[in-house]
Amino acid sequence: MLDALLDEARQQAEVAEALYHESTELPISFEANRMKSINASQSSGMALRIVKDGRIGLGYSTKLDGPDDLDTLVASAVESAEFGAEARFTLPSAYTANGVTIFDPAVEALALDDLVTLGTTALDLLRDHDKDFLCDVGASRRVSRVELRNSRGGGTAYQKSVVSLGGSINLTRGEDILDVWHYAVSCRADVDAQAVAQRIIQRVEDARETATVTTKHMPVLFTPQGLGATLMLPLRQAFNGKTVLQGASPLGERLGEQVFDEKLSIYNDGTIDHAVGSAPADDEGMPLRRTPLVEDGYVRSFIYDLQTAGLAGAEPTGNGERSPNSLPAPGYHNAVIAPGTDGSLADIIGGIDEGILVEYTMGASMGNLFSGDFSGNVLLGYKIEHGKLAGRVKNTMVAGNTYDALKNIAALGSEPEWVGGSFYAPPLLVADLSVSTREG
Length: 440
Description:
Helix content is 22%, strand content 38%. The protein contains eleven helices and 22 strands.
């Protein structure tokens, strides 16, 4: 069907690219300690991107029953090209891939009973630890297939499998409400229910007592989860080639300069086996690769899709990302912060006389992401006193500027971990941030 669509599109356009996708998903969920839902779903569709008279057109359809449907899809793309942007890209002419492994037959073989067992195991571990826990648990498996071809001979084809397990607890004691969660995602069938439950339990136990924080500047230690939700948000904007092209990135004119602490190296890497953000090629048929964004504090590169790279006069980086019914744009695969040499999370805590540990934040994205300013409520965080966790902090905020904070990294851990399957980072200690608290 892709060949037939390309043949027809080439009769009316200079360039054509056809994308087919299909996905099957089986999610289950437990809510308030009980089974809530089992929802199997399947979806498929085909997108056609063309260049006609130098302008970009796009058509998309989920109805692909015969030649008439292909005619309608081509007509839709041709019609949209009349108002489309000027094309500034050249599609790849080779059918290549990077050899990454992102499909595990064992995931595809997971049956409903297997997912129920996975979810029930996590739920039982949480409930057995504390009968007062109100627990939500979700597990799912998804298998998707992508095939992309273009009129120049380029393209890709692959399958991806994803299994996930997440859990959360609510613990209410009088007016004190504690919410803790954790989840694991992988392209292979290696998600561990016991590890997910134990991580939640450990966070709860560390939060049993509360501690007092004084409003002032102090060291702030971010776990990988906390780091991804605060300091990484402005950086994702700043290294996006579209933001650079628009002149809105504070790093746009600083390529090759040392902007950050020499401890910091950040990569966008779509070649990591079994990582959810990996793939053989991006959504334009360009092989995914490891792209250095920051090396030893120096700004090295930005991420681009084909069109944005063409407009910027830059080299494409294999970061074209799209939903099936949209045009590609620069998107991240696996964001990786290279580990440092300062030991485990416990090692770093042991060297702090007074500070806070941030696990979850809320509202940090509401700051000025383009300038790097952030201010977020600490949903789950802990006071550090004399090298130990002294209890959970409440009614507390952290604020600062990402670029200033990452110029002075006091410690970078040597034990990174995955967050959400596509962010890999160690704990990071910022020497000085504003911490404020509300009494009561």
